[in-house]
């Protein structure tokens, strides 16, 4: 695959993650030159090498390393790490971007972003939005999806291997976007940043669905019974800890589930952003589910069934986390009046317009 040297080289962070890898794949399909920031040279970075991507090892929290990584690039996709110091990473990126004279940043944000949200990560995401939008001489495009299809489908092995579908969100609805559709909007913005500068785009799926609707779709594709099972958050936290999920991630995720129940992801959904920007309809849940069912962890093999059975039975004996205590011990700053999205008039006002706040 040859590289079109007339095209600006694009920097991608989170290059081996869900959206970053999809962004890179789509950019290379268009024969666009890409430089990817990776944590280390390993098998995942070798896959990028095979795509014709230039890889560079850099610390997302170090402005000097980021400046070196930006050399030779003019545009960037920034995916903030799900980390207690995400704001430091974004600040380092902004400082380096100014020094490198980048012309555009396309940033992955959050539909819930707000300075008043209970989640520290979500409050930091809001601050990152504001900071990037104030950078002089750098076009900023905000891509702020809600609750990804991936958040549901990472549990697809429960359905394929055990015949159950964990339900955390009750009958509340969402129009979940695929990683690939999120990436398509990012790529459109990266290839024509001047046209999209100052805009906010929310990729969604084409239809509002509850977790019970999703279970019915999975049952249809699987061809065997799938039983939706309400899973209390304390039980989910135990299962997640068993899989190595950090307390910081879970401390935010529990709030996102509550936002889901209160209708935050149904608010303003579905959008037509995917179709309007890419000319292709957003992928429906069945299409996305079929892709996840084909992944190795979800295949109906004897080894997978045994693993799923053992892990399922270990959950009741796995300690959870005291997430409130965790937040106190980490000295997370707390807003005077934490508010979920649907309680927050400011959030609803800001998220009712496609333009960024001035």
UniProtKB/TrEMBL annotation:
Residue span, NAD(P)-binding domain: 14-115
InterPro entries (alphabetical): Ergot_Alk_Oxidoreductase, NAD(P)-bd_dom, NAD(P)-bd_dom_sf
The protein's name in its UniProt record: NmrA family protein
Provenance organism: uncultured Leptolyngbya sp
């Amino acid at each position: 695959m040859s590289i079109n040297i007339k095209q600006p080289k694009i920097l991608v962070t989170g290059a081996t993650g869900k959206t970053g890898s999809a962004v890179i794949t789509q950019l290379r399909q268009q024969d666009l030159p890409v430089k990817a920031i990776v944590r280390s040279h390993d098998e995942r970075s070798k896959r990028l090498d095979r795509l014709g991507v230039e890889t560079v090892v850099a610390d997302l929290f170090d402005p000097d390393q980021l400046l070196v990584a930006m050399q030779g690039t003019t545009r960037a996709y920034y995916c903030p790490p799900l980390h207690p110091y995400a704001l430091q990473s974004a600040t380092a990126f902004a400082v380096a971007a100014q020094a490198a004279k980048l012309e555009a940043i396309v940033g992955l944000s959050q539909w819930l972003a707000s300075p008043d949200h209970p989640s520290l990560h979500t409050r930091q995401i809001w601050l990152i939005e504001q900071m990037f939008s104030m950078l002089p001489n750098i076009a900023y495009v905000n891509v702020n999806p809600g609750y990804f299809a991936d958040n549901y489908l990472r549990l697809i092995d429960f359905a394929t291997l055990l015949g159950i579908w964990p339900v955390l969100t009750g009958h509340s609805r969402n129009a979940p976007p695929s990683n690939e559709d999120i990436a398509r909007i990012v790529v459109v913005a990266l290839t024509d940043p001047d046209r999209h500068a100052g805009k906010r785009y929310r990729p969604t799926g084409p239809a509002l669905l509850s977790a019970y609707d999703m279970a019915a779709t999975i049952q249809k594709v699987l061809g065997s019974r799938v039983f939706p099972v309400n899973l209390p958050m304390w039980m989910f936290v135990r299962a997640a800890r068993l899989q190595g999920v950090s307390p910081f991630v879970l401390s935010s995720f529990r709030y996102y589930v509550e936002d889901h129940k209160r209708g935050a992801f149904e608010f303003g959904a579905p959008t037509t952003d995917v179709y309007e920007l890419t000319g292709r309809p957003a992928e429906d849940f069945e299409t996305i589910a079929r892709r996840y069912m084909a992944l190795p962890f979800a295949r109906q093999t004897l080894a997978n069934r045994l693993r799923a059975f053992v892990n399922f039975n270990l959950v009741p004996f796995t300690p959870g986390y005291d997430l409130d205590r965790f937040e106190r011990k980490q000295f997370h700053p707390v807003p005077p009046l934490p508010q979920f999205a649907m309680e927050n008039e400011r959030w609803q006002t800001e998220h009712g317009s496609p333009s960024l706040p001035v």
